[in-house]
Structure formats: C-alpha cells, structure tokens
Specification:
95 residues, alpha+beta, 4-stranded antiparallel beta sheet, globular
Length: 95
C-alpha cells in the first residue's frame, strides 16, 4: 500500500470552490479500482492550504488513476484555483 500526501494552496477568494473540486476528485477516486481511503485536512495556520492523504493498493494503481480520463475530468479547471503549484509525495504504508 502507498499513501499519497498532496498539499494544495487555494487562492484566498476561491477556497470554497477549491474544496468542492477536491471533494469531487475524492468521489471520483473512490470509484477507481485500488482506492482504499482518503482524508482531507485544512491547515490551522493557513486556511488556504488543503491537504489530502489518499491510500492506494499500489504505486501502479495510483499511476493508473493519475493517467485516467476520470481524473482529468475531476480536476478540470483546477489550475485557476491555486495560488501556487501543488506538492505531492508518495509514502510506503507500514504497520
């Protein structure tokens, strides 16, 4: 299993729209084979920073999601919502 942590920084006047888009992306992810779970976190020190932790069965499955037309549709228009590029990192899940 892998966990993917991604930090997004919404433009201050578009936080609601950014959260809606990311929630829709999470819904699309949940229908993708190999998806296990997702959590969304909002920074206490910066309310424009939206972080997600998504757990997948494998790195290959996550790569498949990243390349899927479903992801492309779910994230359509996202670039207009961010004040800076997202930062993402993959982690191996351990017991």
């Amino acid at each position: 299993m892998i966990g993917v942590i991604t930090h997004h920084w919404a433009k201050p006047d578009l936080v609601g729209e950014a959260r809606t888009l990311l929630d829709g992306n999470g819904e699309a992810q949940s229908r993708h084979s190999g998806f296990l779970s997702r959590q969304t976190l909002i920074s206490r020190s910066d309310p424009t920073k939206i972080t997600t932790l998504v757990v997948w069965e494998s790195n290959e499955i996550y790569d498949g999601w990243r390349a899927s037309p479903e992801r492309e549709r779910a994230m359509s228009g996202a670039d207009e919502l961010w004040s800076r590029p997202a930062e993402s990192e993959r982690f191996d899940m351990v017991d």
